[in-house]
Amino acid sequence: MSDSNVGAIGRAQPLRALAAAIRLPAAPIATFGYELLAIVALALMLLSIAVWNGFPMTFYDTGAYILQGMANYFVPERAPVYSYFIRFAGGQESLWYVALVQTSIIGFAMVEFARAEAPRTSLWQMLGIGAFLCAFSSIAWVSAEIEPDCFTAVVVLASWLLAFRARSLGIVRSFLLVVASALAIASHPSHLGLSAGLIAVAAAVGVVSLLRPGLVPKTNVVLPAAALALAISGTLVANYVLTKHVFLSRSGAVFMTARMIEDGVAKRVLDDTCPGSHFLLCGYKDNLPATADDYLWENPSPFNKLGRFRGTAKESQAIMTEGFRRYPFREGGAMLWNGVRQFLMFRTGDGIAPQEWVLDTEFKNFLPRQMKAYSEAKQQRGAFSFVLLNVVHVGLAALALFVLGVLVVRQWRNWKAIALPAFMLTAFVGNALVCGALSGPHDRYQGRLIWVAVFVVILTARPALLALRRQVESGT
Fold first, then answer.
1. CA 326, CA 329: separation in Å to the nearest integer?
2. Contacts (Cβ under 8 Å, ≥6 apart) of 302
């Protein structure tokens, strides 16, 4: 053999090794090694916006969560479980640790969903889907934000998997999903309502499967219920640690009353009952703020003068109760209308603005070593413009919702085929109703979840749409 041939073979060996390495990820993520690689790669990919920003994204509420978790100071309007999550995930050392744990949990939920619904998905395909979502949906904007909104999608994906795919998950994955789901549920009060609603849907499907075997998929309500029970227990324990009292929330009635002020119901209650009711708000009934946000967060507000959440909790409960008793249809209609509006509001970027004036004190007191990086992040140097971005994000999300709707309508007689798109649409409607009724419509409430519609459609809709096409062609 000539020297030239030997040299050619030597040069070819590295190329063959590279080609083999490139081909290897074509194996499906159902293989454990590629499943793990996909989770790690997605977790890093979901940090992309935070890396570009130079620091994890923050929100107006981030400081309250930091204060509550680091100082053990009870903040009525913030879920203590997420505050402790920031603390125990290493937030005092670096909020990058918190962001990485969040993206890892989200990546885990995504990969397990893909593994259950499309087990032949390869590592390359999974990473391609992740890259597409980072570029054309809200996922990267919410996943690494120090805010419990990142976990709303985990609640929905885990609820589906635990209720409908428990057998394919196995014991270890089911246990991990229960724990991840419990953390996600306990991280925000709206997640409690969303989870309970999805469990009720799964239970109803389970009852139908018993009455009409084979008509609908069998469900496992025990696992998602266990996650909800664990979340409730964690919330009760965290509240007790901070206050020495056992309760779920001390702010729900306040948010509801604020929303009733915006809808006009609270004004009617005050007109009907003052001055006999002796409500502190009687003195302000003719000069109430126009919106719930103005009432809760603007300085010249009666809410601030009356002691905020602590000072108005009992009165808010009484006004809320009177509102439902005196005007049930008006209040029910307002809640439904807010839910409809919330369902249609999912623009990316709501509340993503410079936060230094809001969070400066918390960072200086509890995270001083991170103050420099936080202050120099792009977010603190000027508000982002999301106009062009939302042309793509909103348009694609709306298209995904439309596709899910088409799948349900065109296959409504095949309950097993429509189970997944119907469940997802139910989750979007449920999230909109809970958030719209509790706090009033805001783009971020639906925007934190809407990327799931795009994810589900990309991963699962193509076979269903092809099946529909074949049915139409064979019918003609």
1. 9
2. 280, 281, 283, 284, 288, 289, 295
Q: Is 203 exposed, middle or buried (0-12, 13-18, 19+ CB in 10 A)?
A: middle
User: Any residues with CB less than 8 A from the CB of 338 and at least 6 apart, and which?
Assistant: 259, 263, 436, 437, 440, 441
What whole-number distance in Å separates Cα of residue 115 and Cα of residue 31? 9
Q: Write out pLDDT tens, residues 74-102.
A: 999 999 999 999 999 999 999 999 999 99
- For residues 250-262, one letter each, b for 16 or more C-beta atoms within 10 angstroms of the residue's C-beta and e for the rest, the string is bbbbbbbbbbbbb
pLDDT tens digits along 288-335? 999 999 999 988 899 999 999 999 999 999 999 999 999 999 999 999
- Extents of the domains making up the chain: 26-250+340-470, 252-326
47-64 mean pLDDT: 95
How many CB atoms neighbour CB 301 within 10 A?
18
Report helix angle 328-343 to 265-273, nearest 10: 160
Q: Are 157 and 110 in contact (CB under 8 A)?
A: yes
The H or E element that residue 446 is part of is helix 443-447
Is the pTM higher than 0.70? The answer reads: yes
Among 311, 349, 342, 351, which Cα is nearest to 438's? 342
| CB count in 10 Å sphere of residue 55 | 23
Cis status, amide bond into 275, omega within 30 of 0: yes
